[in-house]
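Progress report, Aim 2. The chain analyzed during this reporting quarter is listed below.
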Amino acid sequence: MSHELDPKHQDWILDPAWYLARYPDVETFGGTPWEHYVHLGDGEGRQPGPLFDPEFYTRCYLPLEGTHPGRHYIVDGRPIGLLPAPQPRSADESRRAMRAALYPQRPPIILIGHDAQRAGAPILLLGLASHYRLLGYKPVFILRSSGPLDSDFRALGTVFVLAEGWNLEGLAAAIPAGVPIIGNTGWSSLVMDEISDEGPRLLLIHEMVDYLREHDLLRSVARRQMVTVAMPSMVGPLERALAEVSSTVPKVVCVRPGLQTSQPTRRAVAAVRRELTQRWGAHVDVFIGAGYADRRKGFDRFLQAARSIAQLHPAAAFVWLGELSSWAKGLADEATSKGLRLHLPGFRKDATAWYAASQMYLLTSRQDPGPTTCMDAARAGVPFVGYRSDLGILSLEAELKGTAMFVPDDDVDVFARRALEVLATESPHARQDRAHYIAKVTAFSRYADAIVDTLWDAHGFRRPGRALSSIRRRLGWARSIKHALHYGPPALLQRLEHSTGLPLQQLSGASRLPSLAGDQRSIQLALYAPGAGNAPNDALRSVKQVAALEAGDRAWITEPSLLVDARFPVDLYLIRTPLADGVTWDATHSLVLEHRSSIANLTQYSTANLPAWVRQGARPPHTGCGPRLAPPPPDRRCGCQPPAQAPTFRWASSSTCTTPSSPPPC
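Predicted structure tokens for the chain:
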């Protein structure tokens, strides 16, 4: 598909009569209204008709300082369901859509962000969501506006973009108190103001205090129960600033950031080096910087340092990864016109390959709570030199010895000399040691786990997902366990037993291993909800009995508390009295929240229409006794996002398990 509009084929977003009435100067153009819009009007931000709002579309979906909203909508946005104008939803519509998003295929976790731009905070939110999906959560996003990473967010969960017209009060009304909520950046606190603080809530602060004060965010942040910051040096200033605007100050905890990057492949690094060689030749030393190029990131300082380094080291070349503001584009054009070897690839998802192909990172930010980009470079073995500005990373200077060197603020000549001194002492061995050290102290899984642990522990909740992680960990050990059971000495069995929590020495030589190391099957359990009936006489009544169940076993249980000790995922059949509204999440809310780490599938039966096996007191059927209902197609207009697989929590309206209900309608 072409990325340009055809001047000869008019699109419906243009209303010629409306356009001419709105912009009388079009009559002097000498062409059709559509030709004027394609060649001039779209770039000028003109509105082509009443059905398309260019200001909304630019603010909500385009990259920072993006242009030509009409072209973007026709070529890229409309095929994926982006809206041409805001579509206000009522509080009731928003409430029902959020309830549909919380349809309990998995226990949900709500992640709040400012936007979906290609920048650090949205990328961090995507990383957290991916990690929490592995822990068994279902991410649901609330964003103030969208951006180029919109499809990445929707690939992980349902997304509610407030700028599209969702009613925040309605969304908040549908969120049960026990659902965990994480707000990312100070802007998210404004959204959290509309949501009840009952239950696990946590706000992640990445901005410096001056930024929060400048944008009048301190009062909103002060209303939170707990906030986290990325660097130890940020704790004291934030506490003092919050005390200035509020008599009650939230608890401020430092959780050091983790890196989402992994080691790039040799092929990716080779591709970057080929691109750089084609541009500058084989014998160049590449100095790199990254981030959204604005004054806060010090893009002008980067160019000043580049010119100074180039004078001392003619083999130097320079790369900046990230989007550029219009201010930065002007500076870059001026620098290249004067002969500076500068390459601007823009935002790159393969940033780690670019770091690995570089020799030095230049940290020129004026103010930054991290930054993590220099740590990403260090993870690839690259040293960095930075100014002693208002940086959170300065609190880790002692730990980064051999990785970072900081020089006096705005002393360009000293900065350039230090960078070249570090470059002269570098070796492949030093890069390898640096990469291993940074990988150890900045593991992203450690950071993401610390965030969710802080979230739950601070509010007195038992963290869900630990039992699920335990199951996954046991299954991951299956191959080692199988080898140990058949060939391993007692010491190996003891070590694996400690790691997995399994009674391996008792299992040695037994035939029970295949059910553990096989295809992660589940057990089927049936349960009467309180007041719905009595379990059969042979129902399991003790924790020990449930813990002894093997994959594929079927039984009744008397209490939901017995689920917590099941060694395998549970397919639960719940028999309960019908509710007036017949919805799923509200009906099973407390049960799912309390035992979310054990339940894999949940099917509900009404006492008004029981299947034969329940009436006879027989064991529940095996999962998959019939085809499941296919998920509905995505509908961006109502915000519903189907799960990756068919719904696993369902209300059975007949005597079979093949008729699950779909989520509440949008």
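DSSP finds 28 helices and 20 strands in the chain. The longest helix spans residues 120-134. These observations will guide the mutagenesis work planned for the next reporting period.
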